[in-house]
Amino acid sequence: MKKILLLNICFIIFFCSFKNYCFLEINGKILRVEIADTEKKRIKGLMNRKKLEENEGMLFIFEKPAILNFWMKDTSIPLSIAFINENLEIIQIEDMLPYDVINIHTSISPAKYALEVNKGWFEKNNIKIGDKIKIIKSGN
User: Fold this and answer.
1) Tell me: the pLDDT tens digits for 65-123?
2) Domain membership of residue 16 as a residue range
3) Which of 71, 76, 18, 82 minimizes the C-alpha distance to 42?
4) Collapsing DSSP states into helix, strand and coil, what is residue 22?
5) Where residue 72 sits, what CATH number does that domain have?
6) pLDDT of residue 3 exceeding 80
7) Helix, coil or strand: residue 133
8) Using DSSP, how many helices (H) and how many strands (E) does the chain show?
9) Which residues pair with 31 in a beta bridge?
């Protein structure tokens, strides 16, 4: 089991990082995500976007687990964010309001990944804390 988890993590870091997007599976739900794996991409995030399709999101990949902070500067789409640990387990889910620069959304423990989707997507798809994420495909 640990070897499979390690391979999945390596796949995210080394393969998806060279692509523009990946497909994730969470509890049987498929999600197409853009990859934000550089400082520049992570800073920009979903800023200045007009919409996000129903089963799309953005996966933020960090070099090492840390306490992560997110805000909604210049982001018009209401979002939900999941903080994910290095074992690909969701450790926290929060909703974020458009253009909110006052509230900083901080992971309660070190996270290596953050996943942003349309607000309510996790709840609508019965995805909760403790659920695991699996990479199923990547693309250009």
Assistant:
1) 999 999 999 999 999 999 999 999 999 999 999 999 999 999 999 999 999 999 999 99
2) 2-139
3) 71
4) strand
5) 2.60.120.1140
6) no
7) coil
8) 3, 9
9) 24
Phi-psi region of 109 (alpha: psi -120 to 50; beta: other; left: phi over 0): beta
Dist. CA 22–CA 2, nearest whole Å: 22
The structural domain count of the chain equals: 1
Read off the pLDDT of residues 24-33 as tens digits, 9 standing for 90 and up.
999 999 999 9
Q: Which residue has the tokens 């999600």?
A: 31
- Three-class SS of residue 42? helix
Phi-psi region of 48 (alpha: psi -120 to 50; beta: other; left: phi over 0): left
Distances in Å between the Cα of 56 and the Cα atoms of 9, 85, 104 are 20, 20, 23
Which string of DSSP letters, residue by residue, matches 74-115? Answer: T--S-EEEEEE-TTSBEEEEEEE-TT--S--EE-SS-EEEEE
Q: What is the mean pLDDT of the chain?
A: 89
* pTM recorded for the entire structure: 0.85
How far apart (Å, rounded) are the C-alpha atoms in residues 95 and 58? 15
